[in-house]
């Protein structure tokens, strides 16, 4: 956003199932159900045996050196061998069994295991000790050095099911993650089935967005918001340049889109660009982006100079990307950079008046005021850093929550940009987006701050904010000036947490389901889908804030929004 904004004008804001490879895409509960349907009287005995075997497997893993799999490969939980073990049915056989049996058998198995969590509680990745040395000192994937070729991630071969190509269930690792994910792996919902969350259409749209981003990544690993057009292919140019001062933030957003879909630096999936015939390795996309970000970082951990008026956005989003990249890969070489980024972000937090702590964040470090937009990105960065077991002072999150409380009008749930008196006013850049419709974007950001900093689903402001968003569903219309990807991203994340399928809230779905339907229509139908054009998979930068970050920003952010189904599990009530 432009820095010349007044009180009503501002600047740009900017998993999957954990399973044994032997079970393909089915959970233990699914396998038990299938066997019970073949011989219902064995259900209870099978349940007891499976539980004992799962416990024995976890005990055996816990007695090792903490490294997942052979030679640093992906963690794979398999049942211990038994002389009486039966041969598992194929996926096709299991589907036929499911179709042919009645509900009585399922009810019988449910009596034994009323909830999948009784099985998966002992198998969640965060329970295992993950090695901190998955890669060598020169960033080469450990498995590749040993001559192994396990695949991870989202980009797959043409003609395969989306579930075989995208990070939610694809590849040989859980959800495409290279290894169990360790601390950050705790953010992934290990019991999530992609077929229950994201439709095939949504998964394909996210996949297409990532392919476009991969095609437009610079040779140095960055994504330029202003100079990406020289990478265009097929005789067409993907117009929509943004401002160069957002290069760090835009690169971090694009990197997050790959991380959110299941890629890390060890992902060995290869995609051949249909235009240039260039082979793109998914892990190289991630690794080169991380290396570029690290190269921009100074000794104090900052990614841009203090004179850059966009320090707040760039620093927060880059910190978020590095924290997640380290958390997923456990690359020891990246830990120091991620921690320095966190420390720098925390050091730039706005001091509270009178020296009584801290509040939010602003464009420059240590500003006299805060704004809810930069603060929202900072909270997401610190929360991811916590999940990656990086050092984050709790006082930083508490200060952000205090600032959110101060700018929220408790009577109507509206949130002010820098102070409560601005609540409900439109944030805009004069001459750039004055004519765009106003949406409860700041309310969505405030809702996310409350969710990730407070973890209290009984907070009455959450439902008040959800009602505001339910009355302003996503609608893609260039003529009506309704497009606001920033609002759609934060609202999708907040509503999915508060009211989505994994929420513990009674009567869940009342807010999330209508939002999800409108969101999918808005994003999927507006995405460019023409395999003969270079802009295939991207979005036209006809959006409230796209003038700042351009087509790269918009495509990265919309792809992240489509990944909300499997990127984060529900944070309420997690042990």
**General form:** globular
Q: Give the DSSP E fraction (strand runs of 2 or more residues).
A: under 5%
Number of strands: 2
Please state the structural category. mainly alpha
Task: Bin the helical content.
Answer: 40-55%
Tags for this model:
575 residues; 2 strands; 45% helix; 22 helices
Question: What can you see in these coordinates?
Answer:
The two termini are 39 Å apart. Helix content is 45%, strand content 1%. It contains 22 helices and 2 strands. The N terminus is likely disordered. A hairpin with a 6-residue loop joins strand 1 and strand 2. The protein has a domain of 176 residues. With 575 residues, it is mainly alpha-helical. Strands 1-2 form a two-stranded antiparallel ribbon. The longest helix has 20 residues.
């Amino acid at each position: 956003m432009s820095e010349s904004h007044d009180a009503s004008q501002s600047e740009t804001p900017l998993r999957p199932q954990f399973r044994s490879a032997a079970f393909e895409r089915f959970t233990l509960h699914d396998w038990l159900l299938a066997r019970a349907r073949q011989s219902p009287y064995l259900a209870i005995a099978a349940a007891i045996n499976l539980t004992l075997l799962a416990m024995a497997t976890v005990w055996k893993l816990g007695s090792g050196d903490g490294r997942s799999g052979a030679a640093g490969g992906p963690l794979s939980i398999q049942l211990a061998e038994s002389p009486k073990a039966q041969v598992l049915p194929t996926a096709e056989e299991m589907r036929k069994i499911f179709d042919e049996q009645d509900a009585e058998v399922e009810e019988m198995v449910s009596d034994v295991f009323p909830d999948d969590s009784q099985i998966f509680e002992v198998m969640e990745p965060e329970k295992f000790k993950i090695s901190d040395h998955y890669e060598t000192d020169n960033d080469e994937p450990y498995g590749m050095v040993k001559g192994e070729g396990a695949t991870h991630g989202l980009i797959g071969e043409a003609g395969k099911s989306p579930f075989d190509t995208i990070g939610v269930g694809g590849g040989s690792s859980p959800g495409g993650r290279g290894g169990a994910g360790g601390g950050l792996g705790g953010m992934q919902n290990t019991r999530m089935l992609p077929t229950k969350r994201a439709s095939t259409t949504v998964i394909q749209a996210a996949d297409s967005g990532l392919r476009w981003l991969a095609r437009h990544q610079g040779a140095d690993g960055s994504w330029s918001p202003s100079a990406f057009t020289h990478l265009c292919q097929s005789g067409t140019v993907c117009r929509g340049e943004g401002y160069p001062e957002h290069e760090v933030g835009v690169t971090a957003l694009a990197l997050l889109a790959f991380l959110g879909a299941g890629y890390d630096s060890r992902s060995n999936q290869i995609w051949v660009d249909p235009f240039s015939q260039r082979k793109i390795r998914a892990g190289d996309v991630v690794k080169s982006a991380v290396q570029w970000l690290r190269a921009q970082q100074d000794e104090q951990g900052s990614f841009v100079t203090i004179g850059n008026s966009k320090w707040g956005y760039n620093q927060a989003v880059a910190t978020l990307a590095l924290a997640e990249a380290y958390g997923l890969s456990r690359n020891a070489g990246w830990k120091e950079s991620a921690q320095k980024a966190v420390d720098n972000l925390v050091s730039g937090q706005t001091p509270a008046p009178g020296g009584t702590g801290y509040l939010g964040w602003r464009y420059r470090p240590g500003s006299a005021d805060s704004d809810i937009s930069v603060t929202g990105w900072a909270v997401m960065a610190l929360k991811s850093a916590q999940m990656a077991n990086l050092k984050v002072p709790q006082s930083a999150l508490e200060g952000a929550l205090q600032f959110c409380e101060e700018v929220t009008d408790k009577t109507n749930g509206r949130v002010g940009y820098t102070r409560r008196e601005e609540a409900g006013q439109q944030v805009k850049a004069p001459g750039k987006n004055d004519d765009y419709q106003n949406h409860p974007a700041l309310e969505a950001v405030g809702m996310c701050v409350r969710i990730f900093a407070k973890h209290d689903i009984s907070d009455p402001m959450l439902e008040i904010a959800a009602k505001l968003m339910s009355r302003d569903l996503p609608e893609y219309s260039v003529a009506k000036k309704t497009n606001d990807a920033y609002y759609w991203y934060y609202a999708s994340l907040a509503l999915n947490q508060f009211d989505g399928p994994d929420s513990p809230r009674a009567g869940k779905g009342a807010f999330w389901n209508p939002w999800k339907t409108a969101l999918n229509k808005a994003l999927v139908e507006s995405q460019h889908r023409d395999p003969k054009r270079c802009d295939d998979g991207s979005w036209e930068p006809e959006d409230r804030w796209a003038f700042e970050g351009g087509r790269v920003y918009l495509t990265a952010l919309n792809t992240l929004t489509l990944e909300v189904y499997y990127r984060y599990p529900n944070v309420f009530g997690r042990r």
